[in-house]
Amino acid sequence: MKQTGFITGLLVLLMVFIVNTAFCGTSIVIKGSTTVLPICQKIAEEFMKIQPDTNLSVSGGGSGNGIKAIMDKTCDIAMSSRFIKAKEIALACEKDILPVPHRIAIDCIVPVVHPENKITNITMEQLKKIYTGKITNWKEFGGINKKIVIISRDTSSGTYEVWHKKVLKKERVIPSALLQASNGAVAQAISYNKYAIGYIGIGYINKDLKALKVNGITATSDTALNGMFPISRPLFLFTNGWPEGKSASFINFIVSPKGQSFVKAAGFVPLF
Fold first, then answer.
1. Which of 142, 156, 197, 248 could be bridged to 62 by S-S, CB 3.0 to 4.6 A?
2. Is 128 exposed, middle or buried (0-12, 13-18, 19+ CB in 10 A)?
3. Residue 17 neighbours by CB distance under 10 Å
């Protein structure tokens, strides 16, 4: 009798475990780029409406940290606003990780200033000179006689990596630049400082900022897709190997026509 009672108890516990697991559903952890963050947050919200048994955890931290999380197996999907580096691929191979890229959107990195700043256009050469300390005052290209406050992203940011390559031509940012950990932090800092300049993903532009033309070109969906805007780039998700199950379903949803409509709703440029 005691043995029968013991076996019955084990069966009850097993059934409780199975039921609880079924109700918990599938969890997908997504980490990385703060540029890609609003896209994935929007898509996650919509995806969970059609897949209510799926829980999605989406958090920022930077492209480099997202790719590191894939290699450390602490996330299922990494968000990145740049392509993976050769040294990251080598490290992944050492860990038996196969990072697979999935292009999900296009972005423009847009230089922004306070709305009261009278400057409307800036050249790539002027941006380089500002961020390397060769231009220090707005009056040097038609602005007010005030020192330029330079705001940049930290080095774990994919946005910084693209800016460093395309704008700075791999020269160092001036050490006095104020480094921010996210697009949102840059946007907030610019909105509070009349003499500051920074750069953000197109989806972060709001009424508290003035987006500058670059070389006379306005950042739009059309100028991003046709390559006319000089600081544009694709946005990625990375998985360890080809995605399966709910991870595959999530990525397929993003690149579907419906998913791309939510990319546009988040303020970014859809693939088509």
1. 156
2. middle
3. 10
Token pair of 79, please? 């968000």
Helix (H) or strand (E) holding 201: strand 196-201
Per-residue DSSP letter, 84 = P
Residue for token digits 């076996």? 7
Using CA atoms, how far apart are residues 48 and 181, in angstroms rounded to an integer? 28
Average pLDDT over residues 1-18: 42
In whole angstroms, what is the distance from residue 194 CA to residue 115 CA?
A: 8
Q: What is the pLDDT of residues 77-125, one digit of tens each?
A: 999 999 999 999 999 999 999 999 999 999 999 999 999 999 999 999 9
Taking every pair of Cα atoms in the chain, the longest distance, rounded to a whole number of angstroms, is 93
C-alpha closest to that of 39 among 96, 95, 107: 107
The DSSP code for 202 is: G
10 Å CB burial of residue 109 (0-12, 13-18, 19+) is: buried
Q: Which domains, ranges and CATH numbers included, belong to the chain? A: 25-106+234-265 (3.40.190.10), 107-232 (3.40.190.10)
